[in-house]
Structures are given as structure tokens and as C-alpha cells.
Amino acid sequence: MIVPSEMSKRIILACKREVFSGKDILEVLRGNIAEWTALNPEQVTDRNIYDLTVDAIGEVLDRTALTRFLHDIVLLQTPITPTDLIKQMASALILTRVRDESGEILIDLGIGA
Amino acid sequence: MENAVVSDFVHRTLEALDRAVGPHAPEEREAIMNRRAVLQQAAALVSILWPEDLTAARVAAVLTSERATRRAINDLLERIGAYGVRAGEDLYILLSGVPFDANKPEGRVLSFFADQYLHPKYGGRLRARGFALSRELMLLPSEGNVGIQDSRRASTGGNRMKGVAPVVVPSRRSKQVILVCKRETFRHTDIVQVLRESIGEWTGLRPDQVDEGLIYDDLLSAMDEVLDKATLVRFIHDIFRRKPTVNSPNVMKQMASALSMTKVRGKDGETLIDLSLDLQEPALAAQ
């Protein structure tokens, strides 16, 4: 079982929670990170969000998924910005399975803790 | 200009070494003089790449112990290896002046060095002097070096028998891609264009038929085969380190750079990634 860092858990949960909300995931993450770090949202840069999201995918995705992620980068319209990749990473996190078919926990997101 | 830098550096280094060697007992002096030749070459090579980097005093200081000498040489080689060496001829001239004994650690270090970075056309001359060149054709795979392959296969086969570390053996195409990336580092060529031409050559396509997607796929496969997960994550971290936005040629250049910096040998000279390209392995192993 993978146990991500606290910040990664929060980022993954925020991505999964907002998947159908229609909100801009970048601003959702900015708001959440600001809240968790006691900063104002405008103090959280795209670069901060980018770094924290990369940490999250690094902790929960396997090599194959990481490679697939890199593969998808080239499919994006150029030029690529950090924002593009944050969105790409958020989709990868949203689609990451946390339980297997039999309900076993694969990634511990601290749900119900 | 480079030659002037080298000769000045070597001159200063030798002066410092002579001072260091002076008061030692005869046998100790001899041992130091042997090491000195090796260090002289390494220092000269470093001075080509980083003229102001290594001071003569530092070279002299490391001569005081065998282990420190080896560590210093390994350190230099690692750094040179990470950046690649530009000029085959310079390297040959430097290496060919060394008293060489393949049974000594320094000899092995030099062989390793020549294997990795020397243009194959100088390989025969060095081998005639006793250099145990085992991997020289790695440098320019498209140039034929059939005669050298036997010794190489024998030596890597021996290492494999010991089973010390698992050796990564990438696919043939990935090996080719990695070798091109390593070869072109710091040559100021457009790596994407070089890869386009190389892939054209390997596949029998014209360069204009090799599209970006094909190059990208080859780079990605190579990365997938040789980089560990942590390095992949670091790569994603670093995509925007230099630029606020990137396009796919930028990303491809970064991928090529990541591949060119990948270590193929461990600290003790053991093979981490096998980049050999010959196809006759079973036949040769049976001999």
C-alpha cells in the first residue's frame, strides 16, 4: 500500500473531489494549498502548485503511468505552460485507482481517519 | 588556444608534483611518478574542459595516497563523462603519452576512459600499446569496428558471470539513441536534427520522413528503459526550470540531455547500463 505525504494526499483528494465541479482545478489547488499553508491564494505561485503536483504524481503513479504522462505532453498544443501540465497531472491523479477490485486499499489517502 | 591552456596547466602541475615528489624514498618516488603520469593526463583533460577548475596544488595533494589518487581520478572521469569530451585527437595525444600497465588500477581507469570517449580511429593505435579497449565502438556505433568486438564481449561476459549488479540492457534502438545523445553533448549541434538524421539512417527513411513524434517516441522509450522513477520525476520537475513555457523540441532536448547525463558505469567501473551494439553475442559467448 502506498502512503503519500500529507500534502500529496490533500492534492489528490482535492483533484478527485473537484472532478465534476466544473471549477478551474488550478484555482482549486491554489486555494487549497493557501489554506493548508496559511498563505493568501495570491502568494501561491503556479510554480508552487506545479512542484507540489509533481511530488504527488511521483508518489502515487508507477513508472508506466509516469511515462504515459510524459508521452501525453507532446500531444498538448505548444507551447506548453506549467498550467497545462498541472491540469494534465490533475487528470492523471483523478484517474488513479485508490482501491482494487476487491476493495483493498492501494493508496492510503487517509479517508475516514 | 586549448593547447596553450593544456600545456600551461600541465607545466604548472608538473612543477607542483616535482615539489611533492622530492623528499620521498626511491620506491615511493617511483610509485608516485607512475601515478603522476595518469594524473597529468586527467588534469590536462580537465583543463580542456574547465581551464580554471583544478589547481596544480590539488593534484599534488592527492598524490599522497593511492586511494585518494584513485578517488580523484574517478571523480575527474565521472565529471568528464557527464559532459563528454569533444576532441578525439586531443584525447588520443594525451593518452598516448602515458606509460601504461593494464594490470594497475590506473591502467584500467585509462582504458575505461579511452573506451568511453575516444574516437574509434585511434583505438587500434592505443590497443597496440596495451590499452585494454573493450568498449570503444560505443562512441560511434555507425563506424565499423568489428575486430574489436571479440575482446569486448569476452570482458563484459566475465563481469556478468560475477553477477554483482543487475545490468540494464536497453533495446537496440534505445542504445543507439542514448549513444547519439551522449556523443552530441556540448557539440552545439541541434540534437533533434541529429536524431532525425540518425533515426532516418537506422530505419532507411529520409530525414524529412522522420517526424517529431517518431523522435519523441524513441527518446521516451530510451528514458523509460534506463532511468529510474526518481529521475523521471525529477525530469518533470525540471521541465520549466529554464523557460516559462516549453514546446516539444525543448522537451526533446531536455530528454536528450537527461539521457546524455545517464551514468553507464558505477563507482567501481562496473557496467550499469549495457550500451554495446553487437549482435553476435551468443556466437561469441560460445567461443
Question: Any overview of this molecule?
Answer:
- The complex is a heterodimer of chains A (113) and B (287).
- Chain A is mainly alpha-helical.
- Chain A is built from five helices and no strands.
- In chain B, helix 9 packs across helix 13.
- Chain B is globular, with a radius of gyration of 20 Å.
- At the A-B interface, helix 3 and helix 4 of A face helix 11 and helix 12 of B.
List keywords for this structure.
heterodimer, A: 113 residues, mainly alpha, 5 helices, globular, B: 287 residues, 63% helix, disordered C terminus
Provide a brief overview of the structure.
With 113 residues, chain A is mainly alpha-helical. Chain A has helices spanning 6-17, 25-37, 46-60, 63-73, 82-94.
Give the arrangement of secondary structure elements.
The complex is a heterodimer of chains A (113) and B (287).
Chain A: H1 6-17, H2 25-37, H3 46-60, H4 63-73, H5 82-94
Chain B: H1 2-21, H2 26-49, H3 56-62, H4 66-83, H5 88-96, H6 105-117, H7 123-128, H8 149-162, H9 172-184, H10 191-203, H11 212-226, H12 229-238, H13 248-260, H14 281-286
SS content category of chain A: mainly alpha
H/I helix tally of chain B = 14
Strand content of chain B: under 5%
Strand content of chain A: under 5%
The number of helices of chain A is 5
Question: Which bin fits the share of residues in helices of chain B?
Answer: 55-70%
- Contiguous low-pLDDT stretches of chain B (5 residues minimum) are 46-66, 79-100, 132-164, 279-287
What is the number of beta strands of chain A?
0
Helix content of chain A: 55-70%
| Shape, principal axes of CA atoms of chain A | globular
**Major sheet size, sense and barrel closure of chain A:** none
How many strands appear in the DSSP assignment of chain B?
0
